[in-house]
Amino acid sequence: ADIYLSGLNRSKKSFSQRIRSLALNFKGIDEEFLEELMVVLLEADIGIKTAQKIVDRVENEAMDRNLKSFGEISECLIEQMAQMYEEKGDEAIKRNEAGPTVILMVGVNGSGKTTTTAKLTKRLQEEGKSVVLAAADTFRAGAIDQLAMWAERLQVPCIKGKEGGDPSATLVDACRYAKAHDLDYLIGDTAGRLQNKANLMKELEKMHRVIAREIPGAPHEVWLVIDATTGQNGIAQAQVFLDACHVSGIILTKMDGTAKGGIVFAIRDLLGLPVRYIGLGETADDLRPFDLEAYLYGMCE
Ligand code: GDP
């Protein structure tokens, strides 16, 4: 938990400092306070729609429960943010009991898909699971080699096609490999070019189709990797992927490099998706399961 919090230090400091600075002018829940709270939320990159909801909820709660002190109100803020997150449900991560569990990584180039695939592999290995990787990002130059290098370091098999080749073919090969070797997990690293949305959709559809043919029910999880430093832009990009495939969760990368961790709440509120992991650096160890409680208290205390 300490590492988790220190990794989030940047978002923690600035958000909590700003919240605390609200105490200086605090005279009660008035227009001025609500406006200042709105600004703090926007600066944390929570986004205007979600920030407005949070402000409204804090205002209503404070009225209903007759909260007066700044302490009570900042406590209420954390509580309302947690409730908003949890209201969206609590879906468990899917696992395939009958054979390999297939996880697809999607997202725009540069968001951290390849690195996150490696990090996830390491976590699964630490749980005693066997993993095969599929280098299905046949578009970005060097992506296949980059994943193959991680695979070598982590001592897991990596199924690769040719650069510019059909990513679905690579995934089929990897599915067959996983079944033949009775492996627990297959993680597919895919390409994410947003410039050509129709193509991206067609490609993702095909990947889903061929994987499901090899392993019934697969892909079991489709995780959209979002670079936290891109802020609200990341949300807009996410929408494209949501339209193109069945995204089941989010991995938020580069949380070590931003003071704008509030994007977690925008993602949850606007896209309804759970944040599964957060990336806190460039090594294979820098991935943590998302923990709402630790996150909120890290941000707010
Ligand atoms: P891809 O194109 O989506 O596969 O992205 P990559 O995995 O190649 O990552 C792009 C860059 O972001 C690389 O330089 C990674 O080392 C870096 N990166 C990925 N995740 C993180 C993270 O959580 N924190 C930091 N600081 N850098 C990251």
Describe this structure in words.
This protein has helices at 2-7, 9-24, 31-43, 48-64, 70-86, 113-126, 143-154, 167-180, 197-214, 232-244, 263-271, 292-300, and strands spanning 101-106, 131-136, 158-160, 185-190, 221-227, 249-253, 275-279, 287-289. The protein contains 12 helices and 8 strands. It has an 8-stranded mixed sheet with strand order 3-2-4-1-5-6-7-8, sandwiched between helices. The protein is elongated and about 65 Å long. Strand 5, helix 10 and strand 6 form a beta-alpha-beta unit. The protein is α/β, with parallel strands linked by helices. The chain binds guanosine-5'-diphosphate.
Helical coverage, percent range: 40-55%
Which structural class do you get from the secondary structure elements? Answer: alpha/beta
Average per-residue pLDDT, rounded, comes to 89
Helix/strand order: HHHHHEHEHEHEHEHEHEEH
Tell me, briefly, the overall form: elongated
Compute the gyration radius: what is it?
A: 21 Å
Number of strands: 8
Name the ligand types.
guanosine-5'-diphosphate
The largest sheet is:
8 strands, mixed
The CA-CA distance between the termini, in Å, is 14 Å
> Which stretches of 5+ consecutive residues score pLDDT under 50?
1-8
Percent of sequence in beta strands: 5-15%
Number of helices: 12
List the strand order in the largest sheet: 3-2-4-1-5-6-7-8
Enzyme class: hydrolase
EC number: 3.6.5.4
Keywords: Cell membrane, Cytoplasm, GTP-binding, Hydrolase, Membrane, Nucleotide-binding, Receptor
Family: Belongs to the GTP-binding SRP family. FtsY subfamily.
